[in-house]
Amino acid sequence: MTLQVTGLHVGYATAQVLHGVDFTIGAAESVALLGRNGMGKTTLVRAICGLRPPTVSAGSITYDGAELTKMPVHRISRAGIALVPQGRRVFGSLTTLENLTVVPRRRSAPDGQAWTVERVFEFFPRLAERSGSMARSLSGGEQQMLAIGRALMTNPSLLIMDEPSEGLAPSVLDVIQDRLEGLRASGLSILIAEQNVDLALDIAERVIVIDDSGTIAWSGTSEQLRADDVLLERHLSI
């Protein structure tokens, strides 16, 4: 499964945000989407997933050869793309277990093993302990685990995450990072939009940097970016 973004222009009613973005994510590839706040990372994530606003005014997004720009959200999800949204957005009035069982899709994951409730609970044991708790009562870290588990229950071939480290304590972040590295090793394709550069570079093999012009300012491997202090300072103020 390959995600191909070509000449993508995306914006809102009063502002154009992305101007001619091009990139590809291949099967079993992990990619980090970096850039300072307000550069358009979430806008790009929403455009790929079919969420409105924003509006795609030009360009193409294809997944496994199918055009996504005019496709409704539920069909994009069925095509194999799952989103862990910024802010988690779990269903607060449902239990942990209900959050997981409301979305399952019957198909194999890239490693050949389907994601089930039991597998999610094994992946995140804390969720098993809180299975009967209302999602709104979970801690921020538990809600992030639940948001990831809920996405995995659709058995995606591409997992997109928007700021998964936001607001997490270091101890919880260590757990999340370990699990995400395991997902990468399983052959799941990953796109992670993230402000935590160290986390993103640890998880992703390749990096795309968006700048204030709404274009891709730099792309390359995680190792190349990590080793180049000038690039880090220029594009990410690190």
Task: Describe the strand arrangement of the main beta sheet, using strand numbers.
Answer: 6-7-8-3-9-10
Terminus-to-terminus distance: 34 Å
Approximately what portion of the residues adopt beta-strand conformation?
25-35%
CATH top level class name: Alpha Beta
The structural class is alpha/beta
Characterize this entry briefly.
The chain has 238 residues and is α/β, with parallel strands linked by helices. It has one domain: 3-Layer(aba) Sandwich (Rossmann fold). It has helices at 41-49, 73-78, 96-101, 117-123, 125-129, 140-152, 170-185, 197-203, 222-226, 229-236; strands at residues 3-11, 16-25, 30-34, 55-63, 66-67, 81-84, 158-162, 189-193, 206-210, 216-221.
What does this structure look like?
The protein has 238 residues and is an alpha/beta fold. It has a single domain, classed as Rossmann fold (3-Layer(aba) Sandwich), CATH 3.40.50.300. Helix content is 34%, strand content 25%. The protein contains ten helices and ten strands. A six-stranded mixed beta sheet has the order 6-7-8-3-9-10, with helices on both faces. A four-stranded antiparallel beta sheet has the order 2-1-4-5, with helices on one face. Strand 7, helix 7 and strand 8 form a beta-alpha-beta unit. 39% of the residues are buried. The model has no long low-confidence stretch (mean pLDDT 94).
List the helices and strands and how they pair.
Elements: E1 3-11, E2 16-25, E3 30-34, H1 41-49, E4 55-63, E5 66-67, H2 73-78, E6 81-84, H3 96-101, H4 117-123, H5 125-129, H6 140-152, E7 158-162, H7 170-185, E8 189-193, H8 197-203, E9 206-210, E10 216-221, H9 222-226, H10 229-236
Parallel strand pairs: 3-8, 3-9, 6-7, 7-8
Antiparallel strand pairs: 1-2, 1-4, 4-5, 9-10
